[in-house]
Structures are given as structure tokens and as C-alpha cells.
Amino acid sequence: MTSRHLRPDEFDLLLDHEEGFGVAPLRRHVEACADCRQELAAMEAVVAALDTLPDLAPSAGFANRVMAEVPVFEPWHAALSRSVTPLVPATRWAQLAAGMAAAVGLGGVTAGATWVLARADMAVLLAQFGVDRLRGELQAGGASLVSAALGQGGEAALRGASPEEIALWVGGGVAVAGMAVVGLRSLVSAPSRR
Amino acid sequence: MTADALGTLPDADVVRLAQQGREPAYRELVRRYERPVFSLVYRMVRDREVAEDLAQDTFVKVLNHIDRYSPEFKFSSWLFKIANNVAIDHLRRRRLDTVSIDGAPDATSASEVEASTIQLASEQESPLDELASRELGSAIERAIGALRPQYRACIMLRHVEGRSYEEIAATLDLPLGTVKTYIHRARHELRRALEGVRA
User: Cβ contact (<8 Å) for B20 and A74?
Assistant: First the structure.
């Protein structure tokens, strides 16, 4: 037990209900000392009054007033997660199967992409093959169209022409056709004159 | 997720949902803390209308920057820190807006200082303070109103919100020793004020 009166910080230890090595002697002193007991009682009354202070409420509609000034944004990753979540199966086994299928699909896409990157020459060759084939189809279609429109002579002229001449002929043909369409539409839609 | 389900989640989970753009989570955070924040601010500024505006500012600031919240701190500590800063800023501005009672700053002689010094008739509360005190009610509320704002914030967080000294230090950005000193002094000032009431 301490023989002197308690210091202010020692009163705080008791008020805060501290439990420590040095607190027991303080308590014993308070039990024996009328002055310190009176001081502690007065401080405890203050603390009790503070502890019973209520929380005060703002006026009704406070939350609405706050939310009126808070724009709520959903980040893209949250939106994506929210969109995917309903697609996840409910049962554990279905989830497992869906997960396996997704993993296999992802593995296939990755393998394909890796193969394309590793064999870029093969990819270029395949692309070239596809472009050549498309060009052949377009030439055959164009020849039959010219043959139908201009006869065998036109088709022969087309076959003998250079690519630049063909481009000029085709461009000119499209321009003439376009002008014809526009002219016809204006004739059709023109108001009749009295 | 329903409002009831949100009500059972810890703060950190509700904040995470708010960060994902869920409006009900925002509203849940307001619902949980509108009273504590308003109480703290009201007891700091002692004006209901101003306290509502400042509490609203606090929530708007916090919710508009919810993406910056770091979960290593308690959400409530972050919220109270901003509420306290908003209230202290207001009190500083209000003090700047008031006329100095210590005499004109440009006074060059003692007589000029005396002539420009406002003499207070008494230390009684102004009518506005009295109105606030009536609403805030008891003698202890009036005694709290007479404390320095820094003491007021510490004592509110300690006794009304039940925060530890360490949490208060983190919330108010004060050293732990300073918080203990402020609370100790505040308790003693309150004790003296309440003795005056009882006498």
C-alpha cells in the first residue's frame, strides 16, 4: 500500500478500471485514505455522468440528404464480377464441372495462341493462302459479270488489262452506277409541276 | 443483398461492398454512424443546424472517397477523424469571423487598446449558447460545452463512443500521452464545473 495520496494519473488508472501490477496498492490506499476515497468518488461521479450521455440523432431524412450528394459508381471489375456470378452453377459438382470446362477452354485458347506465336510462318502462309483464294473467287465472279454485261469481247479486254486499268474501269463503273441511282431517285421523288 | 443482411456484416465488409458500388452499403454506413458522428459534431459546435451540415459534409467526404479507405485502419476511426477535422475547421473559421475581444490589432498605445477592447458583461452564455445548452440538456452537457474543443473531442470519443486511448490518439492524430493529458484535464474541469452546479 502506498503511504502518500494518489497522484492524478493514478486516479485515472482507477477510473479507467486498469488491471495491472501497480494498481492493487493504489486500491488498498484508497480503501484506507478518506481524502483519496472522496476524490475518487467525485471523479467516478463525473465519469458515470459522461458514460450515460446519449447519442443524439440528426433530423429525419439525413441519409437521403447525404446520398443526394454521393454519386455511386460501380467499377468495371465489380460489374463484370456481378455479371458472371449468376452464371456460376448452384451445386458444388456443377461448379466443379463448369470450372473444369472453363479451364479446358482456357487451356485450348492458350495453346492455340501459343502455337500461332510459335509458328508465325505457318500462320502467314495460311493467311496468304486464304487471301489468294479470295482473290481468285473475286476475279472469277467479276469475269462472269463482265461477260454477262459486255459479252466475250469485254471479258477478253478485261483479261488483257493491267490491274490499274481494271481498277479504273471498276471505279468508273461504280461511279456511273451511283450517279444513275441518284439521278433516278431525284426524278422519282421530284414534285410534279403544274 | 438486403438491408437486414447488410446490418449483420462487420464494417470492413460493408465498406468493401460500398467500394464495389452498392448503394445499400453506402446507406448502411450512414445508418450505423449518423448518430455517433452527429453527436460528436453537435457537442463540438453546439448548434444543431450547423452540426447537421457538418455531419453531412463528413459523410459526403468519406463516401465520395470510399475507394481510398485502407482496411488496416478501423472505418469508424477514419470517419471520426474526418468529423473532428470538419468540426475543428468550423470552430476555427467561426473564431476568425468574430471580433477580437483583446483590442484592435493596429492599436499603437495602451489607451487605444483599452478603447477598442470589448468588455464582456459577464461570463454567462449568449442566448444562442443557452438555446443549445437547453437542447443538450443536463449540467454535464453544459460543462462539456465549456471545455476546449480538443478536450471535448477526446472526452466524447472516450466516454460516449467508448474508444481506447490508442484509438483516440490514432483518430485525432495526437500522441498517446497528449490524449491521456487532455482526458485527465477534461475530467478535472468537468468535476470542478459540476461541483459548482451542486454547490
Answer: yes
* Side-chain-facing half-sphere of A135: CA atoms under 13 Å: 7
Which of chain A's residues have a Cβ under 8 Å away from the Cβ of B56? 62, 65-66, 69
Q: pLDDT for A166-194, tens place per residue?
A: 788 888 888 999 999 888 888 887 665 54
CB distance A70–B64 less than 8 Å? yes
Decide: B193 and B155 in contact? Cβ < 8 Å. no
Instruction: Give the residue from B58, B8, B42, B53 showing the smallest Cα distance to B28.
Output: B8
* Cβ distance of A50 and B60 shorter than 8 Å: no
Task: List the 126-155 stretch of B: residues with Cβ below 8 A of A.
Answer: 138, 140-141, 155
Q: Give Cβ neighbours of residue B105 (< 8 Å, ≥ 6 apart).
A: none
* Count of Cβ atoms closer than 10 Å to residue B12 Cβ: 11
CB contact under 8 A, A74 and B21: yes
**Separation of alpha carbons B166 and A16, rounded Å:** 13
Q: B53 — phi, psi (to 5°)? A: -65, -45
Question: Rounded to whole angstroms, what are the CA distances from B183 to A29, A108, B66, B156?
Answer: 23, 67, 31, 10
How far apart are the C-alpha atoms of A46 and B194, rounded to whole Å? 8
User: B21 in contact with A at a CB cutoff of 8 Å?
Assistant: yes
pTM of the model: 0.62
ipTM topping 0.85? no
In sequence order, which residues have a C-beta less than 8 Å from that of residue B146 and are 6 or more positions away? Answer: B189, B193
Question: Using a CB-CB distance cutoff of 8 angstroms, which residues of chain A are in contact with residue B155?
Answer: 50
